[in-house]
Structures are given as structure tokens and as C-alpha cells.
């Protein structure tokens, strides 16, 4: 699952999640496919990846490390970074079909799946992507609502818990249209609140005068042995969620110039970006755990309570809201486009679906209002909000999203496409190694999903839906 991108527009292809991040350079020269000459470099690709990866997932890393401890926590994070880097290099090799310099380009993740695997696997991949986008919409609603509730409390307003924040979030998301500048703003905001969380963690450690936590994480007694196991599994999903960006890697690669081959450039960019991201994650997660120990909060910024500096926490929570509201628009656009195109194809003569109503706006161009788009998108926002009210569990949802997106999108499809692309013989040593990696990651995904679902079940016992403060 990807949290924040430099997206500017979205493809409307069926079963295709596409986020077009081409820079409009105005260059007159064309590439081999007739498109504008690509000018991306190792550094521009690295910056795209870093801004795509670092997002709300960083807020749960301290909690994840608290479940695993000082030994397993950083080790697991490092292993996830290695797997993500390796499978990303496999995926980058699938950008062109055939020759790495002159072969047919695959502009999106789904194009690569179609070219290399085809058949039913394309539909399966599309289903997984859209399901993941739906889950991300729910997760973003929960996270932004928690921050809104913090701001409401800080301002001294009367509030009735998470419900108020969810309603406010819904109103904002239902009214804002996906604009190109949302991605830029979202990238800035994600770095803002992540950096504030890191800075406050360092300050808290300095105030305590020592590093909190233990080698094995939260101790039995604070939680039961069963809870310890489930929480450890859930932590795997939370770390996986923080590294999810494979679904947009091909789109980023499509901005890179050649020669050298795009795959060669992308492998260098992936190494740089994963190294930078891992360092940042290690700092945020470890200093958060060092600051709070076993009591590390699910959302790092909520752990600092209502103590000084108020203004810094205000900035961080405002940044979270702005980022996630913007990211909500960006990530839901492919899902919106798919449903709207499918409806238009299924009911070509329906005026409700196809008719555009022109609404004159003084001093500007008229606004085109499509009733089906208005009704469908509003219902979608309401649905994600209702589910968020029923399951207002940030860590459980993040862990589940990480589990659902990690194996299929980050590991399985890149591995299978690479095997098909390079025509690796079945049962060869290389084939077996790749299949063992895929199987191991599948086990991790199942464990993470099970831990997150168990967390939801446990939390539901102590939560009254629609009337609970988070």
C-alpha cells in the first residue's frame, strides 16, 4: 500500500492504478515511444521514492518496536528494507519488455503485470490494488480524525470523541477535488510531522536522561502472553505498511532518461532511497521507543499529551490532517475512475451516468457537474467514514493494510514477473530461491494479518461504536 506521491493525474484504464508523475518540461525532443523526452535522474527518482514512502506509517513505528524490543525491532525493520530493495530491483527490470534499452515500455505496474503475466493474474492484481486503496482510505480517515480530535480538545471545544473528528474529515474529503498541488503539499506535510515526531522523541529522551525499553519489548504482565504474540505479528504489518511503494515504482521509473537503461538508474535510486528511508525510520521508531518504552503510543504524536510545546504539536497535527486529506484524494482517484468508467460502459445510454450539467460561475469557466460522480463519490466517503467509526483502531488497520499489500504487491508479482521476464527455468537454483523468498514473505503476511485481526477483535470488546474517544 503507497501513502504520498508526486501524482498529477491518473489513468482511467480498467484494472489499472496509475499515478502519472511526469514532469512537464516543455522539451521538444521525443523519446522512442513518441512521448516527451524523459529527463529524470538517479536523484530525481530517489526524491520521488522518498516522498512516496515517508508518510503516516512512520507514526506507528515506535509502537511496533515496542512490541518487538531493541533486538528484534530494528532487525525486522532492516530485513524489510532489504526485501523491499531486492524486490524493487526485480520490478525495475520489468519496466521494458524484452531488451532493457529498446524494448516496449510498461508505463504502470498493471501494464508490467499484463505484459509479463497476463490472463487472470491481471484481474487478481487489479482487485488487490483496489482493495488496498479502499483500505488506505479508511486508514487515512482514522488517522486524520485522531489529529482533528486532538486539535478540538486543545482548542477547548466541546467534543464527543472520535465521531466528531470523523464527521469533520468526511466533510472536507467530500468537498475537495483532486488537484495537482495536493501531492506537493502532502509531501511537505509528511516530512513536517515526521520530523516533529523525531525531534520530540529526542527531546523526551534527553528529559528522561535515559533510554527506555527492553531487549524483548513489552513484557508479559503488562500484556498477556497471547497478546504479546498477536501484537508482535501486528508489528510486522505496521513495518511493512511503512515501506509500501512498489505499486508506483514503475510510474517513477517512467520519468527516468536513458541511456543508461532505466533499470540500471532505478536500482541505484532504490538503493539510495531505501537507505535514507530506513535511517529515518530507525531514528523515528527507536527514539520514540526510547522516549516511552513499553508505553509507546500507537500514534507517536499522541504520546506527548497536552504538554509544552503546544504550538509544535499543533503544527504536527495540522500537518497530518492536511497530508492525509490530500493523500485521500490522490489515492482514491484510480478507484473512482475505474468505477465511473465501468458504469459508463455498462450503461452507455444512462443520462444519470453520462450527462454533464454546466453550472455557470461568474468570472470563471462553467463548472461541469456529473450527478453519478457526485452521488457515487459521496457514498464512498460516507462508507469509509462509517467503517472508520466502527473500527477506529489506527494500529490494527495500519497492520492489516501492511499485511494485505506487502506480499502480493511488493513480493509476489515482482518475483513472478521477473521469472517470466528473464525466462528462469522452473526448479533451477535461482527459481527455487525466489520462490522460497516469496513463500517466506507470504507467511509473514499471514502472521501480520492474523495479528491485526486479533487486535481488532480485542479492541472491539472495549469499544462502543459511534461513541468512543480514541
From TrEMBL:
GO molecular function: symporter activity
Positions of transmembrane segments: 45-65, 71-95, 130-152, 178-203, 269-290, 310-331, 374-394, 400-419, 431-458
Domain Amino acid transporter transmembrane: 38-457
Main location, first listed in the record: membrane
GO process terms (BP): amino acid transport; auxin-activated signaling pathway
Keyword rRNA processing found: no
Membrane topology listed for this record: Multi-pass membrane protein
Annotated GO CC locations: endomembrane system
InterPro entries reported in the protein's UniProt record: AA_transpt_TM (IPR013057)
Location relative to the cell: Endomembrane system
Keywords: Amino-acid transport, Auxin signaling pathway, Membrane, Symport, Transmembrane, Transmembrane helix, Transport
UniProt-listed Pfam families: Aa_trans (PF01490)
Top-rank taxon, per record: Eukaryota
Family: Belongs to the amino acid/polyamine transporter 2 family. Amino acid/auxin permease (AAAP) (TC 2.A.18.1) subfamily.
Function: Carrier protein involved in proton-driven auxin influx. Mediates the formation of auxin gradient from developing leaves (site of auxin biosynthesis) to tips by contributing to the loading of auxin in vascular tissues and facilitating acropetal (base to tip) auxin transport within inner tissues of the root apex, and basipetal (tip to base) auxin transport within outer tissues of the root apex. May be involved in lateral roots and nodules formation.
Annotated PANTHER family: OS05G0424000 PROTEIN-RELATED
Name by which UniProt lists this protein: Amino acid transporter transmembrane domain-containing protein
Amino acid at each position: 500500500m503507497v501513502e504520498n506521491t508526486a501524482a498529477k493525474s491518473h489513468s482511467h484504464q480498467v484494472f489499472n492504478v496509475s499515478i502519472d508523475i511526469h514532469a512537464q518540461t516543455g522539451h521538444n525532443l521525443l523519446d522512442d515511444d513518441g512521448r516527451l523526452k524523459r529527463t529524470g535522474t538517479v536523484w530525481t527518482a530517489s526524491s520521488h521514492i522518498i516522498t512516496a514512502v515517508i508518510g503516516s506509517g512512520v507514526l506507528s513505528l515506535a509502537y511496533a518496536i515496542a512490541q518487538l524490543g531493541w533486538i528484534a525491532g530494528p532487525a525486522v525493520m532492516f530485513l524489510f528494507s532489504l526485501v523491499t530493495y531486492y524486490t524493487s530491483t526485480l520490478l525495475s527490470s520489468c519496466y521494458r519488455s524484452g531488451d532493457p534499452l529498446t524494448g516496449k515500455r510498461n508505463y504502470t505496474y498493471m501494464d508490467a503485470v499484463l505484459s509479463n503475466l497476463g490472463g487472470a493474474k491481471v484481474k487478481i492484481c487489479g482487485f488487490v490494488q483496489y482493495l488496498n486503496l479502499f483500505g488506505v482510505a479508511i486508514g487515512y480517515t482514522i488517522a486524520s480524525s485522531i489529529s482533528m480530535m486532538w486539535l478540538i480538545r486543545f482548542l477547548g471545544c466541546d467534543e464527543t470523541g472520535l465521531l466528531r473528528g470523523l464527521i469533520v474529515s468526511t466533510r472536507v474529503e467530500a468537498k475537495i477535488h483532486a488537484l495537482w498541488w495536493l501531492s506537493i503539499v502532502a509531501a511537505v506535510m509528511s516530512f513536517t510531522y515526521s520530523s516533529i515526531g523525531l525531534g520530540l522523541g529526542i527531546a523526551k529522551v534527553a528529559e528522561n536522561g535515559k533510554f527506555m525499553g527492553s531487549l524483548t519489548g513489552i513484557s508479559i504482565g503488562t500484556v498477556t502472553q497471547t497478546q504479546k504474540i498477536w501484537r508482535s505479528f501486528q508489528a510486522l504489518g505496521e513495518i511493512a505498511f511503512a515501506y509500501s511503494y512498489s505499486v508506483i515504482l514503475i510510474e517513477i521509473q517512467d520519468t527516468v532518461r536513458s541511456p543508461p537503461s532505466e533499470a540500471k538508474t532505478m536500482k541505484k535510486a532504490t538503493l539510495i532511497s531505501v537507505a535514507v528511508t530506513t535511517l529515518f525510520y530507525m531514528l523515528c521508531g527507536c527514539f520514540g521507543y526510547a522516549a516511552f518504552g513499553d508505553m509507546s503510543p500507537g500514534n507517536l504524536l499522541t504520546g506527548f499529551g497536552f504538554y509544552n510545546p503546544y504550538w509544535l504539536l499543533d503544527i504536527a497535527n495540522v500537518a497530518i490532517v492536511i497530508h492525509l486529506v490530500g493523500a485521500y484524494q490522490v489515492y482514491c482517484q484510480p478507484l473512482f475512475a475505474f468505477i465511473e468508467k465501468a458504469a459508463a460502459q455498462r450503461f452507455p445510454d444512462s443520462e444519470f451516468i453520462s450527462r454533464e450539467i454546466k453550472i455557470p460561475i461568474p468570472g470563471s469557466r462553467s463548472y461541469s457537474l456529473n450527478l453519478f460522480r457526485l452521488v457515487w463519490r459521496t457514498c464512498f466517503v460516507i462508507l469509509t467514514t462509517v467503517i472508520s467509526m466502527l473500527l477506529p483502531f489506527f494500529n490494527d488497520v495500519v497492520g492489516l493494510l501492511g499485511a494485505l499489500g506487502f506480499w502480493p504487491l511488493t513480493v509476489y508479482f515482482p518475483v513472478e514477473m521477473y521469472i517470466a521476464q528473464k525466462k528462469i527455468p522452473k526448479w533451477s537454483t535461482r527459481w527455487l530461491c525466489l520462490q522460497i523468498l516469496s513463500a517466506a514473505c507470504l507467511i509473514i503476511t499471514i502472521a501480520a494479518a492474523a495479528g491485526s485481526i486479533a487486535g481488532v477483535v480485542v479492541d472491539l470488546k472495549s469499544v462502543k461504536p459511534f461513541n468512543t474517544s480514541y
